[in-house]
Each structure stands twice: as structure tokens, then as C-alpha cells.
TrEMBL record, chain A:
The keyword DNA damage does not apply. NCBIfam families: urea_trans_UrtC. Pfam families: BPD_transp_2 (PF02653). Keywords: Cell membrane, Membrane, Transmembrane, Transmembrane helix. PANTHER family: HIGH-AFFINITY BRANCHED-CHAIN AMINO ACID TRANSPORT SYSTEM PERMEASE, SLR1201 PROTEIN. It comes from the Bacteria. The chain crosses the membrane at residues 20-39, 59-88, 134-157, 164-182, 212-229, 261-280, 300-325, 337-360. GO terms for cellular component: plasma membrane. This is Amino acid/amide ABC transporter membrane protein 2 (HAAT family). It is a multi-pass membrane protein.
Automatic annotation (TrEMBL), chain B:
InterPro entries: AAA+_ATPase (IPR003593), ABC_AA/LPS_Transport (IPR051120), ABC_transporter-like_ATP-bd (IPR003439), ABC_transptr_urea_ATP-bd_UrtD (IPR017781), BCA_ABC_TP_C (IPR032823), P-loop_NTPase (IPR027417). Keywords: ATP-binding, Nucleotide-binding, Transport. This is Urea transport system ATP-binding protein. PANTHER family: CONSERVED COMPONENT OF ABC TRANSPORTER FOR NATURAL AMINO ACIDS-RELATED (PTHR45772), HIGH-AFFINITY BRANCHED-CHAIN AMINO ACID TRANSPORT ATP-BINDING PROTEIN (PTHR45772:SF8). It comes from Marinomonas aquiplantarum.
Length: 377, 285
């Protein structure tokens, strides 16, 4: 245990902004929560429950962006299918929430969710068994994305598929799942997905306190994932990861089984995406096959590119900013968002190859050279 | 009585404290069997790219502790031979053994590296985004499995080893510099450093002095000669002056097979070689 703690505290310089960022994140979370629960609605500083839920949703996206950044920014694997892991985590949570509804559904069946009654099913399919237990559903939320990532990664990385081919395969993966989950016979609610949730662990999902708790839990888990990832990436394993990104063949020639590193990093990343999905569903109240759509996975990559890939904080900031912009933009021009997103991506690739974080670094070094020039003159 | 004695003895052997059971011995500590003085056996190697024979029935034997120079015109197959030895390319036929027991053709790059075969590429490839120190740390001879790497920490002796190598390659002042910011010659040295720090049994070095100044070339020659003996070194080089300054045995490759082998003097007087290799040079000059 002490060894583990030591390993945790021995971080190197690369993550010097991580701790301040975590403190800022948690500080804002607490303030917003307090402003929702303690201040009267008439107060100018009151934060509505709607805003809290929106913030919680953004934080889930931030965690998803972090997952993509680990695998893309640090290991050079451009996954265009991470939406699939997110959605699988979300479905695991959704199944639990469905079973929490119990006999309060429209048809009032004691165990079967409404859509199964509607399909005239007599009993629960085997993969719904146990999902009424929160702990079991949560294990599934990390296990299923993790296993899928392991099998996919093992096959792809062992046969040394890289670059564009790998990206296309990840798109195909999420697309295949999209088609499968659309089918009613799959037993996941078809194109309507899972919705009409009532409670989580007995707490009313509509109440302010539950909403705020979910928001705080999301922030805490995001902070934890950020800290753990930062620590992993500043260990020697992180150096091997960068080595794989920049010169994989060379890394093999000094004795590293690069495909194993890639598989495990891919699994780690998929598990984070699964957790993000599981946190997302109770806050937005629905999960449907649309989450598997290939375009979703591409959007995540754009968040990361905007924030700055290869910097974990950059991925988080990118996800928060782009999603805030999306909320604002779609309120004015619902159909224009994809074009705006495409334009944003082009602009970032052309002018900000290192994203916003890279811009900050450039400005800082420019100011430094200016001030040293002044000092010398 | 005798039988009981024997079984008791074997039982004692099984639990001897100074030995490790074979299945517990770490993989990278695998022994290289050089009881016949040979460390590398390359036999009947053929490899063609789209019908073009890059290696053509190539045979090469290298003694343990030798410093061997490979020369040959561009496209003779020198780099391809190194690719086969290090597991990057698989030949169409032939065999490659490291010591008497390790069949290199059945292993992948990582396995071969862990057996103690290090390689320096023709075009220097270092990890540009990482510091010189990190480049060396990554190359250390350590347990390279995932979990072990995650929890690994530099031991004092490993740090000493890196410091020592930094001095040898003359990059002590650049230790925290990004490798990408080094000059071409310095990258060459860093790559040699990455080889040294991994403590290999056999070093394959492809064109080490390309882009180096005369002084640096001289230092490289000194370093390579000092390495031979304890280690085995195979050097590919075009620079005949350089080859002359280090070589004991020279192998000439031509169109994917061995044309001649011997001391520098023997090679220079070999009729075939004069015809196809030195001849060209003489004509050009
Ligand atoms: N991957 C490859 N595909 C096709 N041809 C190759 C490949 N690698 C090497 N060759 C060819 O094999 C021949 C030997 O190349 P190489 O071993 O690099 O020669 P050198 O002795 O100059 O190092 C060259 O003619 C080269 O064009
Ligand atoms: Mg070559």
C-alpha cells in the first residue's frame, strides 16, 4: 500500500498543472452545487438544476475526451470508435435504471421493462439478469467496454494494423454496434433505447439533491481519472507509450512488446469511456443507439484536437469548450452545428496544431523571450 | 543403496539455494551457448522482394567477441541482412542461429532484443520528443513487460550506468535536451549510447559515421574497437578509411551473397573484389 502511495506521489514535472487544475475543478463544482442547493431561486447567483445537469453532462464528455487523448495523443492510435465504449457503459447503467422502474412502467409488469412487454416477451433475456443489482451493473459498465477493447486491440495490434486502417476499423466497430442496437430483437430497446428512468439506488432522479450528487460524483471521478492517468503517463510506461507513438519499430528493437502496451492502454482508455457513459445516462435520462453513431466518435477527436492532444488537461478543456459552444450554437442554428464543427477542426489543424494548450505555451514563451530581451537591453 | 543416494542427491539439487529453477529464471537472462566459439550462424539465406533477390544464398559465421566489418556497394543487401537478424524481415529460406540454441527466425523483434542483440539504424532513429536521458532510460536492460515497466523506478546503479554512458557519448550537457534538438552527429552518438546502455551481446551497427566529423569518426572507431572482445560487433560502413582503421575481418557482400572474406589486405588483393567493388572506386577516382 505504501508503495502504491509512493508511486502516486512521485510524479514528475510534466504534470505540474494537474493538481491546480483538479483543485479548480472541484472548487467550481462545490460552488455551483452550493449555489443550487443553498441559494433561493430568486437569487441572482442561483444555479438552476438544468445548468447543473448540463455541467455534469459536460464533465462526462470531458472524461470521454480524456480517454481518447490517452490513446491518441500519447500513443498515436487514432480511435474513431470510442463512442462505442461510452455507449456500452451507458447501456449498462441504463439497464440497471430500467430494472429500478419495477412495476411502475406503463404496462405495470413486475420485472419486464415496457419495451419487452410491448414486444410480447415472456421473460427477461439472460443478459438482463443481475442488472437489477447496482454493483453488478457497474461491473458490467467497465467490464464490457474493457473486454471489447481487449479483443479488438488484441486482434488489431497483434496483426500490426496501424494508421488509417485502424481508424477505419474503429469506425466500423461502432457502426456495427449502431446497427445491432437498432434492432428490437437485440433486447436493448431498439431505436428508442432505454428511458423513463425513475430512481437510482432509491433516490429520485428528478430531485435537485440527486442531480447535484451525480454532478459532484462525476467531478470527483474525473479528477481521480485525471490524477491516475497523469501518474501512469509520467511513469516509465508513459515513456514507452510516447516511444510507441513516435517510433514504434524502434521501440520493438529495444525489447518492448509494443502490441501489449497498446492493448492495455486501449483497454484502460475504453474503461474510462465506459465509466463516463455510465455517469452520463442517469444525468441525461436516456440512452439510445444514436450514441454509437460514427459521427459522435469523430466529434470526440475534435474536442481533443481543439484543447490540445497529448495534454490531458487540454482534452478536458477542449471537451468543455466545444460542448458549451455546441449548446449555444444549436440553440440558434440547430442544423449548422456539423458545419461549424468541421470548420473548427480545419481551423485548429491549420493554425493550432497543438490546440489551445499549445497556444498558451506559445504565448508564454513569447512573453518570456520579450522580457529577457528587455532585461538584457 | 546407490539408487537412494542418487535420488537424494537429485532432491538436494532441486532445492539448492544458489540455483534458480529454470521456469523461474527471468527470460532476459537467457544464456547464449557459444561453446563452439561462434555467436552467429547465418546459413543459406534467401530473401526476395517482388522477384528481386535482395539476399541470395547468404552464409555468414561470426565468432564470439569478434569485430566484423560488412562492406559492399549500395543495394548489396547489408541492411536487409540486419533486418533478418533482428526479426524485422522474414527470409524465404535459410536459418539464423544466435549461439547454438536460439533460432532467431522463430522470434520477434522484442524477443531478439531481449536476447541481447542491439541494433543501430542506418538513419538515426531516436525518440525525438523525449529527453536524451529518457532515451537512455528506455533502452536500459530491464524487465520490459507492461506491469513491471509501470511500477519500475530507476535504481542508483541504473542511474550510474546512464551517467557513465552519457560521458562516453559526450552528451552529458545535453542530458535534459529533447533528442529531436540534437545535431545529426549527436543523434548518431545517442543511438550508440542507447545500444551501450542496453548491455548487448551482439551489436549490429549500420553506417555509424555517416554525417560525423573526422574527429567524431575517430572517436567512434576507438569506441567500437574497445567494445569488441567482451561483445561481438558487426559494422556496416562505406567509409573505407574507417573500415581500415578498425577491421580485423572484413566481409564483402555483393548482390545478396558473400563475395569475399578476410583481412583488409586479403580483400584489397582479391581479384573478384577488385573487379566489382574497389574497381568501381578506382574507375571513379
Ligand atoms: N522492403 C523492401 N522492398 C523492396 N525492396 C527492398 C526492400 N528493402 C530493400 N530492398 C532492396 O533490396 C536491396 C538491398 O537493400 P539494402 O539491404 O538496403 O542494401 P544496402 O547494402 O545498401 O544496405 C536494394 O536493392 C533495395 O532496393
Ligand atoms: Mg544500407
Amino acid at each position: 500500500m505504501s508503495k502504491l502511495l509512493h508511486w502516486f506521489s512521485a510524479g514528475r514535472t510534466s504534470g505540474k498543472y494537474t493538481l491546480p487544475f483538479v483543485i479548480l475543478l472541484l472548487g467550481i463544482t462545490l460552488l455551483a452545487s452550493a449555489a443550487n442547493l443553498l441559494l433561493p431561486e430568486s437569487s441572482a447567483l442561483h444555479v438552476s438544476t438544468y445548468s447543473i445537469t448540463l455541467l455534469g453532462k459536460y464533465l462526462c464528455y470531458a472524461m470521454l475526451a480524456l480517454a481518447v487523448d490517452i490513446i491518441w495523443g500519447y500513443c498515436g492510435i487514432l480511435s474513431l470508435g470510442h463512442g462505442a465504449f461510452f455507449a456500452l457503459g451507458g447501456y449498462a447503467m441504463g439497464m440497471y435504471l430500467m430494472r429500478q422502474i419495477g412495476d411502475r412502467g406503463v404496462y405495470g409488469h413486475p420485472t419486464l421493462p415496457d419495451f419487452m412487454v410491448f414486444l410480447d416477451w415472456q421473460e427477461l433475456p439472460w443478459f438482463w439478469l443481475g442488472m437489477d443489482q447496482f454493483w453488478f451493473a457497474m461491473i458490467m459498465a467497465v467490464l464490457v467496454p474493457g473486454l471489447l477493447a481487449f479483443v479488438f486491440g488484441w486482434l488489431a495490434f497483434r496483426s500490426r494494423v496501424t494508421g488509417v486502417y485502424l481508424s477505419i476499423m474503429t469506425q466500423a466497430l461502432t457502426y456495427a454496434l449502431l446497427l445491432a442496437f437498432f434492432r428490437n430483437e437485440m433486447g436493448f430497446g431498439g431505436n428508442n433505447g432505454l428511458t423513463d428512468f425513475k430512481e437510482i439506488l432509491g433516490f429520485d432522479l428528478q430531485s435537485d439533491a440527486t442531480r447535484v450528487s451525480l454532478f459532484i460524483i462525476t467531478a470527483l471521478l474525473l479528477a481521480l481519472v485525471l490524477l491516475v492517468s497523469q501518474r501512469i503517463l509520467s511513469s516509465r510506461l508513459g515513456k514507452v507509450t510516447l516511444a510507441v507513438r513516435d517510433a514504434e519499430a524502434r521501440t520493438r528493437f529495444i525489447g518492448y512488446r509494443t502490441e501489449r502496451y497498446k492493448v492495455w492502454l486501449f483497454v484502460y482508455s475504453a474503461v474510462i469511456a465506459g465509466v463516463a457513459g455510465a455517469l452520463y445516462v442517469p444525468q441525461v435520462g436516456i440512452i439510445n443507439p444514436g450514441e454509437f453513431s460514427p459521427i459522435n466518435s469523430i466529434e470526440i477527436v475534435i474536442w481533443v484536437a481543439v484543447g490540445g492532444r497529448g495534454t490531458l488537461i487540454g482534452a478536458i478543456i477542449g471537451a468543455l469548450l466545444v460542448n458549451y459552444a455546441k449548446t449555444r450554437f444549436t440553440a440558434i442554428m440547430p442544423d449548422g452545428w456539423l458545419f461549424a464543427l468541421g470548420a473548427l477542426f480545419v481551423l485548429v489543424t491549420l493554425f493550432l496544431p497543438k490546440g489551445l494548450i499549445g497556444l498558451y505555451g506559445q504565448l508564454k514563451s513569447k512573453r518570456q523571450t520579450l522580457s529577457t530581451q528587455e532585461a538584457s537591453s | 543403496m546407490n539408487a537412494i543416494d542418487q535420488s537424494l542427491q537429485s532432491l538436494r539439487d532441486t532445492f539448492r539455494r544458489d540455483l534458480v529453477w529454470p521456469f523461474l529464471a527471468p527470460e532476459h537472462a537467457a544464456k547464449v551457448d557459444v561453446s563452439n566459439q561462434m555467436i552467429l550462424y547465418v546459413e543459406g539465406l534467401n530473401l526476395s522482394f517482388d522477384g528481386f533477390k535482395a539476399l541470395n544464398d547468404l552464409n555468414l559465421y561470426v565468432k564470439d567477441g569478434e569485430l566484423r566489418c560488412l562492406i559492399g556497394a549500395n543495394g548489396a543487401g547489408k541492411t536487409t541482412l540486419m533486418d533478418v537478424i533482428t526479426g524485422k524481415s522474414k527470409p524465404d529460406s535459410g536459418s539464423v542461429f544466435f549461439g547454438q540454441t536460439h533460432n532467431l527466425l522463430s522470434k520477434d523483434e522484442a524477443d531478439i532484443a531481449q536476447l541481447g542483440i542491439g541494433r543501430k539504424f542506418q538513419k538515426p532513429t531516436v525518440f525525438e520528443e523525449q529527453s536524451v536521458f529518457d532515451n537512455l532510460e528506455l533502452s536500459l536492460k530491464t524487465d520490459k513487460r507492461v506491469i513491471q515497466t509501470l511500477f519500475s523506478r530507476l535504481s542508483p546503479s541504473e542511474i550510474d550506468r546512464i551517467d557513465e554512458v552519457l560521458k562516453i557519448i559526450g552528451l552529458n550537457d545535453q542530458r535534459f535536451m529533447k533528442a529531436g534538438a540534437l545535431s545529426h552527429g549527436q543523434k548518431q552518438w545517442l543511438e550508440i549510447g542507447m545500444l551501450l546502455v542496453s548491455d548487448p551481446r551482439l551489436l549490429l551497427i549500420d553506417e555509424p559515421v555517416a554525417g560525423m566529423t573526422a574527429q567524431e569518426t575517430e572517436r567512434t572507431a576507438e569506441l567500437l574497437t574497445s567494445l569488441a572482445g567482451e561483445r561481438t560487433v558487426i559494422v556496416v560502413e562505406h567509409d573505407m578509411e574507417f573500415v581500415r582503421s578498425i577491421a580485423r575481418t572484413v566481409t564483402v557482400l555483393h548482390q545478396g551473397s558473400v563475395l569475399a572474406e578476410g583481412t583488409m589486405d586479403q580483400i584489397q588483393n582479391n581479384k573478384d573484389v577488385i573487379e566489382v567493388y574497389l574497381g568501381e572506386e578506382a574507375v571513379e577516382a
